Each structure stands twice: as C-alpha cells, then as structure tokens.
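dumping this here so i dont lose it
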C-alpha cells in the first residue's frame, strides 16, 4: 500500500514538473523582450542637413542591410530620403500624387504589405492645431533601386473615432497592423512651468482592414492610453510628450521617444491588451532608456536585429548626428 502511494506521489510530481517547466519557459520568454541595460549612445553617422533639414523619422532596413530611410517634418514637401548607415550617399525621392502644401510627415516605419512585399509606411499625421478631418499613411514598396520619383502602392485615409489629434508616432507591427500614438500636450513656450503633458492615445488599423480598404476612409480603433507623465513624474514636460514610436522586428516590444529619453515597453501589441499605466512595473513591463538628449529629437528606430536603436534630431542649425545605442544584456 505504501509502495503504491509512493508510486502515485512520484507520478504526481512528474506531472507537476511536466506542467511547470513550460510555464517557467513562458515566463522567461515573456520577459526576454525587455532590455535591462543599454549602452551609452555613440555617434554612428551624420545627416546632410542641407537635404534632411528637419528629420522627423528614421528607419533601418532589414530588406537592404546598411540602408536607412528618413523624412522631413512639415514643409519638407512630398519626399523621402535614403542614406547608408552613416548618413552618407543621400538620395532624395519624390512621392508622386501627394500635395506638397498639405503634408506634415512625422514618422515612418517598415513592414509587410501587399502580395508579400516589404514597404515603407510614411505617416502624414501632424496636426498641431487639431483641425484635420483625416490623416494619411502613404505606402511605398521597398525597392533595391529608386529613380527620382515613385508612385505609392496605397494612400490610406484614416479617421480618429473621437476627434482630431496631433501625432508624431506611427509604427507597423510584423503582423501588418498599423499603430498611431498621439502627442498630447499644452505647451507655453514663454513659460515651461505652465506647460502640461497628458497621456498619449494609441490607435490601431488592422492589417486586414487597410489591405482591403480601397479608397475608403478607415476608422481607427482606440487601443489604450500610455501615460508617460505618470511613469516619469520627475521629468520636465519635454520628457513626457511622445515624439516618435517604433515596434521591435519580432513584435514583442516597442519604443517611445520623448525629447529627453526613450522608454521600452515589454508588450506585444498583437497578443495582449496594453496594461493601464498605473499597473506597469519598471524593470518588468518597461525600462527607461537613458539617452544623450538632442534638441528636438523626433526619430527613433530599432536596429533590424532588435538589439539596438538609432535616434536623431530635426534641429538643423548645426551637425545632425545619428546616435546608436545597443542592448548590453547577455542572452
């Protein structure tokens, strides 16, 4: 009888271990996306500020290693730019069919698109006065060689479900979903102490919807708020408003940039809902990426391997460096 009991107990522990091992593995995997230690930023290149004079977006290509994409902020016209990884060999490419006076390019991203292509997504989402009826995402196929101009594969007209927003962050998830992250602020340039930052709002357009949208306006879906003022209460208002946004190549984490630092969140936006900001735990759900702050830094991109990032500045009155930061975690 005792031997039977021992045999049953042994079987029970075997089953328990069999069940727990996958659980431990899942827990380990869920925390693997968040980098615990980042290197000090180092200059990896410099932009030609005669061409890219108000850089508001940067993205590192996986399709063509060593290539970077860039855009200028409002007033830069209907162009995007290609450089090598050091900011050299700048090529200026005109986007046909986009009115130059109406565009306010604020971010760009890379992702899968029609018929298994790789595409550049350019976000015409700036709206400082919050008066636009719709915003636009321009989808351009990633090509090995471009001429002086290119026609978009698609131009997506998007509408917020509540009201107009100013936004400077857009990213495409590996599953093809498009996300826009707003910039919520009330700035008084003559008195920073009276300026305020508010929680940013995250919106989504699913891959299925935009792929089959035709020329119809598409309604964005509200996903969550990201409350940087709550996460970073000791920072200035410039360290609390979001100026750029990028999703990791594997989709398991994402970065948001402010004018002072960056924040990496351990969230796969396609797999689970975003936790409320007051429930987020530093070191588990997010980490602060301490940056060498550049004036008006409005561009950030993961490197194609997901183990580092690039950022730069739209301030063009002196050298416009590209700064590289690498994850130092040993995995």
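and the seq i came up w/
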């Amino acid at each position: 009888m005792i031997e039977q009991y021992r045999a049953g107990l042994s079987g029970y522990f075997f089953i328990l271990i069999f069940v727990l091992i996958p659980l431990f593995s899942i827990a380990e995997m869920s925390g693997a996306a968040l980098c615990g230690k980042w290197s000090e930023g180092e200059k990896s290149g410099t932009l030609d500020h005669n061409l890219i004079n108000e850089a508001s977006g940067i993205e590192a290509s996986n399709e063509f290693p060593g290539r970077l994409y860039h855009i200028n902020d409002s007033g830069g016209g209907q162009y995007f730019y290609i450089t090598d990884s050091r900011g050299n060999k700048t090529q200026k490419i005109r986007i046909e069919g986009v009115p130059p006076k109406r565009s306010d390019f604020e971010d760009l991203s890379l992702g899968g698109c029609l018929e298994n292509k790789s595409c550049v997504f350019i976000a015409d989402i700036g709206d400082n006065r919050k008066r636009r009826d719709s915003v636009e995402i321009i989808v351009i196929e990633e090509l090995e060689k471009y001429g002086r101009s290119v026609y978009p594969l698609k131009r997506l007209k998007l509408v917020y479900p509540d009201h107009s927003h100013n936004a400077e962050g857009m990213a495409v998830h590996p599953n093809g979903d498009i996300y826009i992250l707003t910039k919520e602020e009330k700035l008084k340039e003559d008195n920073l102490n009276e300026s305020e930052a508010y929680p940013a709002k995250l919106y989504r357009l699913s891959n299925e919807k935009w792929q089959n949208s035709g020329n119809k306006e598409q309604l964005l879906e509200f996903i969550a708020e990201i409350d940087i003022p709550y996460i970073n209460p000791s920072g200035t208002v410039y360290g609390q408003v979001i100026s750029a946004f990028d999703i990791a190549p594997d989709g398991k984490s994402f970065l948001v940039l402010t004018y002072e630092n960056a924040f990496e969140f351990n969230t796969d936006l396609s797999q689970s809902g975003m936790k409320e900001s007051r429930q987020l735990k530093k070191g588990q759900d997010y980490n602060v990426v301490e940056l060498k702050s550049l004036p008006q830094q409005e561009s950030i991109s993961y490197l194609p391997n997901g183990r580092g990032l690039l950022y730069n500045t739209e301030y063009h009155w002196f050298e416009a460096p590209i700064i590289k930061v690498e994850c130092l975690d040993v995995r």
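The chain has a mean pLDDT of 87.
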